[in-house]
Amino acid sequence: MENSIHILVAEDDGDISRLLCSIIRKSGYLPQPAFSGTEALLYLEKQPWSMVLLDLMLPGMTGEELLERIRLRGSVPVIIISAKGEQQTKVSALRGGADDFITKPFDIEEVSARIDSLLRRFAQITPPAASVPHILQHKGLVLDCDSQVVTAEGTEAVLTAREYEILKLLLSEARKVFTKANLYESVWEEPYYGDDNTVNVHMSNLRSKLAKAAPGSEFIETVWGIGYRLKA
């Protein structure tokens, strides 16, 4: 999806994580929960992020350690959301590279406003990224973002809106393996609760249509136990 705001939520408390993800989703952004510091680090290494919401008391790797790793990787904005509200903790986090600090329990509207504010502020000081290409292509597969026409080996494949968005996501990062959770949360913009059937059906239909347009060519492969990616 073009120009999507992806926000990583590193929070080990399930209820708080769901609440933060709900706040992010209602603001029109895409949340990704991580329930430990090590899991959050794995997500950080997979793709660029627009923002990180970070709890300090995480299992596996503490929030302070994760913040240090984040800062070694670049300038992604970070909001600390923590029950450790002592002044020294706040000062240390801000000196360590955090952009903002919110103490639990928090006000939902305040969290939403601070996310929006920090994203606006960061956009003003970040040089504009290169424009998103209007044509996405992999081997004989071509997706025209302006006309929303997909062709496979020169033959048009007529796709539904969901199939189109799935293919567009795969083409946006041709080497990446997308899990079913990645696909569902990015395309449907809803939390993924392990219902594989929805993704499986749409993926099967998409592959069938591409195969019909280009017999003998295979564009999407299944990475067993993980997900899908474009065939190398």
TrEMBL record:
DNA-binding region: 133-232
The keyword Transcription appears for this protein: yes
Domain OmpR/PhoB-type: 133-232
Pfam families, alphabetized: Response_reg, Trans_reg_C
Recorded superkingdom: Bacteria
Alphabetical UniProt keywords: DNA-binding, Phosphoprotein, Transcription, Transcription regulation, Two-component regulatory system
Domain Response regulatory: 6-119
DNA-binding is among the record's keywords: yes
PROSITE patterns: OMPR_PHOB, RESPONSE_REGULATORY
Name the UniProt record assigns to this protein: Response regulator transcription factor
Residue numbers bearing the 4-aspartylphosphate modification: D55
